[in-house]
Design brief:
2 domains, alpha/beta, Aspartate Aminotransferase, domain 2, globular, 3-stranded antiparallel sheet, binds pyridoxal-5'-phosphate, single chain, Aspartate Aminotransferase, domain 1, about 15% strand
Length: about 375
């Protein structure tokens, strides 16, 4: 069925927190991949994960991951199933030791990661933002992380609260730093000196839900202690094919990585994210207190912009007006309320301008 103009418009203004908007060229390439993967005459949903055509897809996706994120050679790249949440359990299952695992509790997702880690050993919370409703992140240099910790776990961008570390914490020398990058991967230039493992659910900046990108330093990989099929080392030894990998998600990931590369790489994505976020935060601030950002100024995310209105009625009026303009997905997460615009790498610039105008005009229509 041909796409109608109104549907195109609606996709441009999709602010969903994830799964979220894909770039138009990626959508078209994936549509082609579903019908015919790389000229093989067989669609990607129908190919064996052990056949030659998929071998190529897998190795291209790994090479792209390495070049887009500048991954050092002593790290392995894994494509796994189970979403980011599964990693909350796999990480302590593999790496919990005698020393407590250290955690920065910066929102809903880290709270879940802590609950999962508690099942496998002692935990220490080196920062807890709960009392402040997770509006702020600490200065990373002020964190006291024990040299005996089994690992440090952080979340780079807190999707629900709309906070983001400008500089990620680093851990003591022998303590691996493991970071959940689900909602910002591909929009920050990575400093591998302070990262031993990152993982990201792909449904925001990298494509499809259920697919997880893991990049892990080999000396940490060697410490994997979980049984099959939860053991990272076994997944790495099997080239991410211990069982059937999320083939469709990997096909989409390849297209997303190509798109990032063609559009100036992570550096350019980071710059564009800054500009979009600035536009929206300035619009919120220009209403002189009618709209209030949720996150404190120095902790604001460039991926998820969260704000509140003076009353629930003003917020629902805003959502109705947004809907009429083809702007969707703007309701805040149930735990925070208010409003949220998720502006990942594929966010449409003109739809962001439309949203900024709506934010600025809201005080007038609410009077
Ligand atoms: C930062 C972060 N971590 C983890 C998750 C959970 O991801 P999944 O639903 O893939 O398990 C999300 C989901 O939105 C997220 O934003």
């Amino acid at each position: 069925m041909p796409m109608m103009a109104s549907q195109m418009e609606r996709s441009a203004g999709n602010y969903s927190a994830g799964p979220s908007r894909l770039p138009d060229p990626v959508r078209s390439m994936v549509a082609e991949d579903v019908l015919d993967l790389d000229g093989s005459g067989i669609g990607c949903l129908e190919h064996s994960h052990r056949g030659e055509v998929f071998d190529q897809v897998l190795s291209q996706t790994e090479s792209l991951t390495r070049s887009v994120f500048n991954v050092p050679s002593e790290y392995s790249v894994l494509f796994l199933q189970g979403g980011a949440t599964q990693q909350f359990g796999l990480i302590p299952m593999n790496f919990a030791g005698t020393g407590a695992s250290s955690h920065t509790n910066t929102g809903v997702w880290t709270t879940k990661a802590i609950r999962a880690a508690e099942q496998f050993g002692p935990t220490t919370i080196v920062f807890d933002g709960a009392e402040d409703q997770f509006r702020s992140l600490p200065n990373p240099t002020n964190l006291e992380i024990s040299e005996e910790a089994s690992f440090l776990h952080t979340c780079a961008n807190n999707t629900v609260m709309g906070t983001q570390w400008t500089n990620l914490p680093s851990s003591p020398k022998d303590v691996p730093h493991i970071c959940d990058m689900s909602s910002e991967i591909g929009s920050r230039v990575l400093n591998w000196d302070t990262l031993d493992m990152l993982y990201a659910g792909c449904q925001k900046n990298l494509g499809v839900a259920g697919t997880v990108l893991v990049v892990i330093k080999n000396n940490l990989l060697a410490r994997s202690q979980a049984p099959t099929p939860f053991n990272y080392q076994e997944h790495a030894a099997a080239g991410s094919r211990l069982n059937t990998p999320p083939t469709f998600g990997i096909v989409v990931l390849r297209r997303m990585l190509e798109w990032i590369q063609e559009h100036g790489g992570v550096q350019s994505m980071a710059l564009r994210a800054q500009q979009r976020a600035q536009l929206l935060y300035e619009a919120i601030e220009s209403t002189q207190g009618f709209w209030q950002p949720h996150a404190s100024t120095e902790s604001r995310s460039v991926m998820n912009i969260t704000w509140h209105g003076p009353t629930p009625e003003a917020e629902s009026q805003f959502l109705s007006r947004a809907d009429a303009l083809g702007l969707s997905g703007l309701k805040g997460h149930r735990s925070v309320g208010g409003l949220r615009a998720s502006v990942y790498n594929a966010a449409d610039e003109s739809a962001c301008e439309k949203l900024a105008e709506l934010i600025q005009s809201s005080p007038r229509f609410s009077k």
